[in-house]
Design a protein that fits this description.
The chain is of the alpha+beta class. It contains eleven helices and 19 strands. The strands form two sheets. The chain has a 13-stranded mixed sheet with strand order 1-8-9-10-11-12-2-3-4-5-6-7-13.
Length: 414
């Protein structure tokens, strides 16, 4: 069994990964939040079935093993469990899908993949390099399949028998009716990418150690543990089970500092590193299916958007829309206790300072906790991982930090 070797990150321990991942290191919580939500697409938890006896390895060597891994072909079954302390999005996901009046398809990936941000889900995956991936979300009595093959991205919802198609050749990302995003290069994301996101953000505020071994999906693995040295973060630790043979991360677990079950527990229950069958990446719309083209949705969204500019939106829509009118983003603090500070003028209306008045304030207070400090007063909205402070003068402070850390950051910003 590998010893508890430590590689305190000082810029050298993660040099290889950081060099490959030019991500914003200034705010670890953003990288972790991305793991918990946006890129949660492919990696769930599996109970360990034994502690294999493996050669000793240091944390530095294990990090380098992850970075050097060149496995691009695999297939398997994945189980994702997410508990961020928010309601299940299963029945609400459609409300968050980008519609813009365009009537987005039920097969659009955005709403379906958002469902992975809560609850437990089983996925089947197949990957053959950066241009061929398949992800199927298995639900009771229905399946949702997302296929990326070359320039084509297909989404199929078996329940509604609707199909979504996008040409990803430098155009719109599947599921984005407004065409603001590119198709994901490595869709779906892999456990390796999740691990590299966390490692790339590591700095001298982080300790990285090897803490024994495990067996995941029938394969021997080392356990790499990433922990913040600072207090005030909602992140307790990140544990990555790394395949001893290939260096591929097989399991990713994010534990909150508050204790209890993992916020994100994701890993393979079955994995095969042989080349998937070519038929896995072929897709033909089923007979009778309604097919929606992404460029059609984009054109309709742009048309409706232009019409909206000539019409009068109600006050609530104006206030909510103004939240997107950020004046800029500043980062307060360092490492795991970094807080993003954003000026959002429209937020004042949501805290009782705008046209909404006292009723709006009462509504906000019911959703969060009222706090005061040198910054003034505001409302804190909490999950198990990411918290946000919305002040009465229209500023937003957000990070994977405790309420006390948020208030302190707001005070220091004054």
């Amino acid at each position: 069994m590998a010893p508890n070797d430590s590689a305190e990150t000082n810029g050298e321990a993660t040099g290889t990964v950081v060099g490959r991942r030019k991500k914003a290191r200034y705010i670890v919580p953003i990288a972790v939040a991305g793991v918990a939500a946006a890129t949660i697409g492919l990696v769930p938890a599996l109970a360990n079935s034994g502690d294999p006896d493996l050669p000793d390895i240091t944390a530095q060597e294990l990090i380098e093993k992850i970075a050097a891994s060149d496995e691009e072909q695999l297939s398997g079954t994945v189980k994702v469990s997410t508990d961020l302390g928010i309601p299940s999005l299963g029945g609400l996901a459609d409300s968050f899908a980008p519609d813009n009046g365009a009537g987005a398809s039920d097969a659009s990936p955005d709403a379906k993949l958002m469902e992975l941000a809560s609850g437990t889900h089983t996925l089947r995956v197949a990957v053959d390099g950066p241009d061929k991936q398949r992800l199927t979300i298995v639900d009771e009595g229905a399946e949702y399949t997302l296929v990326h093959h070359g320039d084509d991205v297909w989404g199929h919802d078996s329940k509604s028998n609707e199909v979504y198609h996008a040409d990803s050749g430098g155009q719109e990302r599947a599921g984005d009716a407004a065409g603001k995003h590119k198709a994901p290069k490595d869709m779906p994301g892999t456990p390796k990418e999740l691990a590299e996101e966390a490692l790339a953000a590591a700095d001298d505020t982080t300790s990285v150690t090897v803490d024994g071994t495990a067996q995941v999906a029938g394969r021997d693995a080392y356990k790499l543990v990433i922990k913040p040295k600072q207090s005030g973060s909602t992140v307790g630790s990140v544990t990555v089970a790394v395949d001893a043979s290939t260096g591929v991360p097989l399991k990713f677990t994010l534990a909150p500092s508050s204790g209890g079950k993992a916020a994100v527990d994701a890993g393979f229950t079955r994995v095969d590193f042989s080349k998937p069958d070519a038929s896995s990446f072929s897709f033909t719309p089923p007979k009778g299916a309604k097919v929606t083209e992404a460029d059609e949705l984009k054109a309709e969204a742009e048309k409706n958007g232009a019409a909206d500019k000539n019409g009068a939106a109600d006050t609530a829509q104006k206030d909510l829309g103004a939240l997107e009118d950020f004046k800029g983003l500043d980062v307060i603090g360092k490492g795991w206790t970094s807080v993003a500070a954003i000026e959002a003028p429209g937020a004042a209306g949501l805290t009782g300072q705008g046209s909404g008045g006292a009723p709006a304030q009462q509504f906000m207070d019911a959703l969060g906790d009222k706090v005061t400090g040198d910054f003034g007063s505001g409302t804190v909205f909490k999950t198990r991982l990411v918290n946000a402070l919305l002040t009465e003068d229209g500023k937003v402070y957000v990070g994977a930090v405790t309420q006390e850390t948020l208030v302190k950051a707001a005070d220091n910003a004054k």
